[in-house]
Amino acid sequence: MRTSPADTAGQDRPAVMLSMTDVVSGYGGSPIVRGVSAQVGAGEIVTIVGPNGAGKSTLLKAIAGLLTVESGQVVLGGTDITNQRTNRLARLGLGYVPQSNDVFDPLTVRENLEIGGYCIRRPQLGARIDEITGLLPALGALMGRRAAKLSGGERKMVAVGRALMSQPKVLLLDEPTSGLSAERSTQLLTRDIRALAESGASILLVEQKALAALEISHWGYVLALGRVVISAPAAELLARPDIGEVFLGRAAQGPKAGPVLRHAPGA
Fold first, then answer.
1. Is 90 part of any domain?
2. At 137, which CATH number?
């Protein structure tokens, strides 16, 4: 039986599915991500939180092959995937859902899913789509609709479903509730993302609703100024009396932020 996030506090983490060691990355100028080390265990939901500009989305793009890792290493399931092409990353088991531009507007929902399953042999494609609609039932009624006609929440489900078509070992989700209603955001976090983890996927999540994301997570990392300043079970992060200050970035300022729970290597 899957333990709840709170139950994992203080326990050893599961086998590592994704690890980052001293990753440095950015957009060509001064690095935005400055030596980040972190990991995601099998079946874990891991959330990265921190103030705007901390480097959270930049880190996901570097892992996903959209930005160059200038130094450091990214390993997926024992394979070094640092600076690999995105199509190879998908074949190796990495899925990525960006914050925006996450669906192909002119295509139907089914066609979007089929594109996500380009690695799957045609005879098995329909069966995989059935598996995805079983996991995300709301997609079933949308198959013939064009993505341009979908609501924000429906589009996000299509994007997640497309990423799942390749049966990723690890799924990267960048601000999945961005632009969604409060009700749909709650459903996505508390129902859909939990269901993905329970189905066997490991999830690395960057989310603007930091407290809500930590409530469904097993582990959390706090980034400030491109570095990991706190690494701890999500339940411990939520219990911190200075949790608001942590998310405002004051964790990087030393004693004013209170005791650091656990530093990641290289932080």
1. yes
2. 3.40.50.300
Q: Which two tokens stand for residue 152?
A: 């924000």
d(CA 147, CA 124): 23
- How far is residue 5 from each of residues 9, 12, 159, 160, 197, measured CA to CA in Å? 7, 13, 25, 22, 11
H/E stretch holding 181: none
Residue 108 is given by DSSP the state B
Q: What's the token pair of residue 10?
A: 């203080």
* Bridge pairing between strands 45-49 and 33-41: unpaired
Distance between alpha carbon 35 and the CA centroid of its chain, in Å? 19
Q: Per-residue pLDDT for 152 more than 90?
A: no
CA distance 168 to 170: 5
Stated pTM of the model: 0.84
Q: Does residue 37 have a pLDDT over 50?
A: yes
Q: Which domain holds residue 95?
A: 14-257
The Cα 110–Cα 24 span in angstroms is 38
What does the mean pLDDT of the chain come to?
Answer: 86
Q: Which residue has the tokens 């390749």?
A: 166
Q: Is the pLDDT of residue 208 over 90?
A: no
More confident site: 117 or 243: 117
Cα 148 to its chain centre, rounded Å, is 24
> Residue 264 falls within a domain, yes or no?
no
